[in-house]
Amino acid sequence: MNSFNKTRIEKATMSSKKTLILNKEQIHQKSKRIAYQIIEDNFDESSIVLVGLADRGYVFAERLQKLLKEIAPEKNYELIKVTVQKTKRSLEAITDVPVETAKNKVIILIDDVLNSGRTLAYGLGVFLNVPLKRMRTAVLIDRSHHQFPVFSDYYGLKLSTILKEHVEVVLEEFDKQEDAAYLS
């Protein structure tokens, strides 16, 4: 085997390696910590709107809603699903309930991974014409490669990666596999 082919095979092997960065238990612990932070920061609010970005962000939002109800059942936690067209150059988004549901309320914009910030920026754009008390963001993993001025207020793990690396979050309800987060 010549050195060119050997190098090509080594690179292919390196790029296909997956490193576990969060297991099921760790994802649950990080989610619970985020839920407590949301309650602490919004202790005077009777209602909080959780806005999950489809697909995994919405699953993560559903989980946070369940945890929040367990921790502080006296509050009302509404859930909105936002589906954004990530490949479009302009904002195209669909919500499962009218955005006016969030009027004069605190909303938490939720996704699984914050990479460039584009998806969260699109999610934020959906609410630009709705008067809000406050908007915050929550992500399971923040990669710190922001190209947009969007940052995570609540995060499970802040991870410094190189641009070539990819973070993959597996959520049981969506992927039909055990919860995990991988770096590849």
Automatic annotation (TrEMBL):
The keyword Glycosyltransferase applies. The keyword Kinase does not apply. SUPFAM superfamilies: PRTase-like (SSF53271). GO terms for molecular function: glycosyltransferase activity. Gene3D superfamilies: 3.40.50.2020. Keywords: Glycosyltransferase, Transferase. Residues 22-160 form the Phosphoribosyltransferase domain. This is Phosphoribosyltransferase. It comes from Sphingobacterium cellulitidis. The lineage of its organism: Bacteria, Pseudomonadati, Bacteroidota, Sphingobacteriia, Sphingobacteriales.
